[in-house]
Amino acid sequence: MAIKAYLYNKCDTCRKAKKWLQDEGVGFEEIPIVDAPPSKEELRRIWKASGLDLRKFFNVSGVQYRELGLKDKLPNMSDEEMLELLASNGKLIKRPLITNDETVTLGFKAEELEKAWGGK
């Protein structure tokens, strides 16, 4: 399975993850998360494969998360509503989001990337 890395080039965390993947020789397809966020169905597959709570997919430190008041709204939203919202705005998605449809990592922690994606 091909590895897809949803990245935002203005994000330091994304740049660190991209550098780690490159340094470790891990091949991946770079997808600009803001310009081409995953579709609702892609997000559903990624979420199911991750085993994580869907709320973990939200970029809680982002400006738009705060502007939309999502801290208060998420507890009352259905999974479908959350998936719609995430698919509609790549800046709401925690990044980097790296997946091969079976394994999923969110954010950048070198030890988690090493465990999930191996490397040299």
In short:
This protein has 120 residues and is α+β, with helices and mostly antiparallel strands. The chain has one domain (3-117): Glutaredoxin (3-Layer(aba) Sandwich), CATH 3.40.30.10.
Characterise this structure.
With 120 residues, the protein is of the alpha+beta class. It has one domain: Glutaredoxin, CATH 3.40.30. Helices cover 42% and strands 12% of the residues. It is built from six helices and four strands. The protein has a four-stranded mixed beta sheet with strand order 2-1-3-4, with helices on both faces. Helix 2 crosses helix 5 (79-88).
Which features would summarize this protein structure in a list?
single chain; 120 residues; alpha+beta; Glutaredoxin; 4 strands; 42% helix; 12% strand
User: What is the N-to-C succession of helices and strands?
Assistant: EHEHHHHEEH
**Neighbour order of strands in the largest sheet:** 2-1-3-4
User: β content, as a range?
Assistant: 5-15%
CATH topology: Glutaredoxin
Structural class: alpha+beta
Just give the CATH class.
Answer: Alpha Beta
CA distance, first residue to last residue = 18 Å
Rg estimate, integer Å: 14 Å
| Residue-averaged pLDDT | 95
Low-confidence stretches: none
How would you describe the shape?
globular
Going by CATH, the homologous superfamily would be Glutaredoxin
Main beta-sheet strand count, sense and barrel state = 4 strands, mixed
Question: How many domain modules?
Answer: 1
In CATH terms, what is the architecture?
Answer: 3-Layer(aba) Sandwich
> Using DSSP, what is the number of strands?
4
Number of contiguous helices: 6
> How much helicity do the residues have?
40-55%
